[in-house]
Amino acid sequence: MLSSATSNTGAGLIVPEDRNVAFAHLNRAKQGDGVVHEFRIQRPSDQAFRWIKDTAFPLLDAQVA
């Protein structure tokens, strides 16, 4: 369950049906994979749905092989 602080920002805007897949893609990026995925958000201001296409990838520094 999301806290009320996050329910109107960030992950809380992702529609529940898309949230698990969006988090799975984010976790893949955290593990070093580049991923492109789409998910829906619902704006709290007018309840409109919007599609988001996200490209997630790690940014590595010189110390990471």
From TrEMBL:
InterPro entries: PAS-like_dom_sf (IPR035965), PAS_fold_3 (IPR013655). Residues 9-61 form the PAS fold-3 domain. It holds the Pfam family PAS_3. This is PAS domain-containing protein.
